[in-house]
Amino acid sequence: MISCSGEGEGGESGVVLGIYGDGEDQEVIDATKKCGTLVEAPVAAEWREGAQIGEALRSGFMLNWTANDCSKCQASGGKCGFDHESYHFQCYCPDRPHAWLCPAQHGSLVMKVAIAASGVGIAIVILIVYSIRKKSNIRKHMVWITGKREHSAAAQKIEGLISSRRYTYKDIKRMTNSFQEKLGQGGYGYVYKGKLRDGQPVAVKLLKKLKGDGEEFINEVASISRTSHVNVVSLLGFCFEGSKRALVYEFMPNGSLEKFIFKSNTSEANQQLSWETLYNISLGIAQGLEYLHRGCNARILHFDIKPHNILLDRNYCPKISDFGLAKICPREESIVSMLGARGTVGYIAPELVIRNIGGVSHKSDVYSYGMMVMEMVGGRKNFEVGVDRTSEIYFPHWIHQRLELQEELGLRGITNEEDEGIAKKMIIISLWCIQINPRD
Question: How many of the other CB atoms lie within 10 Å of CB of 295?
């Protein structure tokens, strides 16, 4: 008998045990309990005596069995075998012999399956991402091409209209010292003081918002490029780079007319312009408008005449600026087609709002001019906020009543009859300009 003392994996024995006898012998029963498996093999009759068991085993015998452990070994990638020294079952694996299975090989199989599955998953994800990005790149490319075409078309349109110098955005930053000194601002953006390489001071208008495809910018460049008049601001250059838009104008040391006629503090009140200067300013603006309406190859309607858009040079010579809302039309056309109202509340001509009054024409600028001159005379806005008496809310109506009743105008700064005469002349002109019906 060979001892069944070896313990294999899972607590099972791998020892071969040979016992002569049948299932009722105590030794066979004990061995079966200890080893757990009983295999009966027939032997020749001459070997029935137990003393000859060794000879019977050495002569050999036929034995058939189902090797479940061998099947597991083969399934794990190994080959079944037997260790003649320990009499244990062996599973010969690629790395080394194992008692039952090839755990490493089994793990590798699982790992391979996992890696294969992961690889397939990653490949699918990559294909999806690639497909999405390809579509996105196609869209971006189409947008970029469209934007580039629009940008190129707009740039060509501007360059075809003007002979002014074109600056890069880097040039704009350099001449303004990175936008250090701000001169003013409005709905269009900001105005900064700058300096050209030759030392000439300039005003740089940087647009912060673009409507549609930059219509206001193109309008302003196209309008000013057609002008050359002492009472119209000069355009020295422009920037059209990507989304950046800027206009370079001649610098006006005295700023806008607005700060001289609307006094909000004592220091500004000390800058009171004489009546003669005010009259010359109003005359210069009228000459500038006459030039825009009749002196150019094409008629230019400004649509935003107001004190803020009138700049004064060192000698208080007025210059019309800000052509963002301007419209260019043939000189022979007296009536202009408009889709919507343009201008600033308080200066907009009635025909721009109420269409049955009359057609839109150059007279719309005349109305705005009249409202502005009225403010120059009164030193206040026509629609004054915070005035208690109703009769003074609308200043043109109030001043018209004073003239009809030949009452004292009560205007500040009038020291003699000459000043009063200038003031009355400006009032009468402004009242003529602000008639409700443009035919009047």
Answer: 17
Distance CA 180, CA 174 (A): 10
Could you tell me the pLDDT band of residue 414, with boundaries at 50, 70 and 90? confident
**pLDDT of 73 strictly over 90:** no
Give the separation between CA 195 and CA 20, rounded to whole angstroms. Answer: 119
| Averaged pLDDT for residues 351-362 | 82
Helix (H) and strand (E) counts in the chain: 12, 13
Q: Name 205's Cβ contacts closer than 8 Å, sequence gap at least 6.
A: 188, 189, 190, 191, 246, 247, 248, 249
- Write out pLDDT tens, residues 198-249: 999 999 999 876 655 567 777 778 788 878 899 999 999 999 888 889 999 9
The per-residue pLDDT for 1 is: 41
**Per-residue DSSP letter, 12:** -
Catalytic residues: 304
5, 10, 14, 17 alpha-carbon torsion, rounded to 10°: 60
More confident residue, 431 or 119: 431
> For residues 371 and 430, what is the distance between their CA atoms, to the nearest angstrom?
7
The DSSP string of 45-95 is GGG-SGGGHHHHHHH--------HHHHHHHHTT-EEEEETTTTEEEEE-SS
Residues of the chain with CATH 3.30.200.20: 162-251
Structure tokens belonging to residue 436: 């409700």
Which CATH superfamily groups domain 254-440? Answer: Transferase(Phosphotransferase) domain 1 (1.10.510.10)
Rounded Cα gap, residues 91 and 423, in angstroms = 120
What's the CATH code, domain 162-251? 3.30.200.20
